[in-house]
Amino acid sequence: MKLRLVGVAILLGCLLLYDFESEALVDRLLLPIAATIGAWIMIKNAAAVCLVASFLALAHTDLNSEDWVVSLAYPAVATLCGTCLVTIVIARFSDRITETHEARWRHRKRGEGE
Predict the structure, then answer these.
(1) Does the model's pTM come out above 0.85?
(2) Integer Cα distance of 68 and 8 in angstroms
(3) In this predicted model, what pLDDT tens digit does every residue of 27-48 receive, in sequence order?
(4) To 10 degrees, the CA torsion angle through 53, 55, 57, 58?
(5) 3-state SS, one letter per residue, for 6-66
(6) Which has the closest alpha carbon to 10: 26, 27, 44, 33?
(7) Which residue, 83, 88, 91, 98, has most beta carbons within 10 Å?
(8) Residue 62 — φ and ψ, nearest 5°?
(9) HSE-up of residue 4 (Cα within 13 Å, Cβ side)
(10) Distances from the Cα of 101 to the Cα of 24, 95, 109, 112, 114, angstroms
């Protein structure tokens, strides 16, 4: 419970420090990454955080921009988070298949014996 409060504090701190009008690297890249870490600590669900972070980074991407944050960093964050999300989904699917394998095998054996 206390760790979740730390996540809330990090997220609130980032929101209070964030300047929507600023062009500084801290406001455009570092505070959103810190807020993402705070959100992960708060909700403890990496898949949800990766999904939201990849969509937000992708929404702010402009590949034709001369600004490296918008043209390189945001697509890199979106790609990294998307890759993490796909990895998590594949691992969960694989774990589910492994968990249900024995039950399916017993069901098949019972069906053959009748």
Answers:
(1) no
(2) 30
(3) 889 999 999 999 999 999 999 9
(4) 160
(5) HHHHHHHHHHHHCCCCCCCHHHHHHHHHHHHHHHHHHHCCHHHHHHHHHHHHHHCCCCCCC
(6) 33
(7) 88
(8) -140, 100
(9) 5
(10) 53, 10, 12, 17, 21
CB neighbours of residue 14 within 10 Å: 20
66-90 per-position pLDDT tens digit: 999 999 999 999 999 999 999 999 9
Three-class secondary structure of residue 1 per DSSP: coil
CA dihedral 96, 99, 100, 105 (to 10 degrees): 140
Return the biggest CA–CA distance within the chain: 72
Structure tokens at 106: 């017993």
Both tokens of 35, joined, read: 């807020």
